Structures are given as structure tokens and as C-alpha cells.
Amino acid sequence: MEIKPITACCEPLTDTALTAEAADELAAAFKVLADPARLRLFSLIASAGEGEACACDLVEPLGKSQPTVSHHLSVLTDAGLVTREKRGRWAWYRADASRLAVLRDALGSVVPLGER
Q: pLDDT tens digit string along 45-99?
């Protein structure tokens, strides 16, 4: 899977039609979060105390092997959804709220079919 960081901000989907480039970027970001393990990792990181989590603390709650967790963390980092900071032997991860806001805002004004 090609991983692109989200670089463009866009209007909510119901305000104006997406350009092909914006649709490609948003779809790539949603694909990253569409994986259950990555979505769970993102949630674990975003909800961690102090707003960050050590990679060493993410293996057990996810129930996956360390190499698998590292792979998923790399995908999240490459997509710009989390940031990574090396501290000695360990990598610490923090959710990038601005990147998540782009995704949230793109869907922000979508109205359920029954409410139109």
C-alpha cells in the first residue's frame, strides 16, 4: 500500500466536490485507519496518559507480535497520523491531532440519509 501523508485540507464532502488529488489523499489516510490493528493502535496512543505512548507498552494490549506492532506504527507514522520520538532505546508515539482533524472535518457535515 502506498502511504501518503495528508497535505491538503479540504471542505466537508457535502460542501463542495473533492478534487481527484484531495480524494486520493483522503482515501489513503482512511485506508491507513481502516485496518483494525492500526485503528486500535491509534486509539491507544491518542488516549494514553500524557498524550503519548511508548512502543514497548503497545505490544501486549494489541495482542500482536512486536514486529507486527512496529510495522503498523510505521504505517501510521508514514501517513502523518502519529509522530515518533526516539528516547534512548525506545520510540514514543503521539497522535497528530491536526491530521485527525482533517479527516474529521472532511466528514463533519455528512448528514445521515434519514435526516435529509
A: 999 988 899 999 999 999 999 999 999 999 999 988 999 999 999 999 999 988 8
Contacts of 25 (CB under 8 A, 6+ apart): 4, 6, 7, 8
Beta partners for residue 82, in sequence order: 95
**What's the rounded Cα separation, in Å, for the pair 10 and 23?**
9
Closest CA to 81 of 62, 95, 65: 95
- Cell matching residue 15: 460542501
Domains of the chain, CATH where assigned: 20-108 (1.10.10.10)
Predicted TM-score (pTM) of this structure: 0.78
- Helices 97-107, 20-34: crossing angle, 10 deg rounding: 110
Q: Tell me the pLDDT tens digit for each residue of 3-33.
A: 555 655 566 666 778 788 878 888 888 899 9
Q: What is the DSSP code (8-state) at residue 21?
A: H
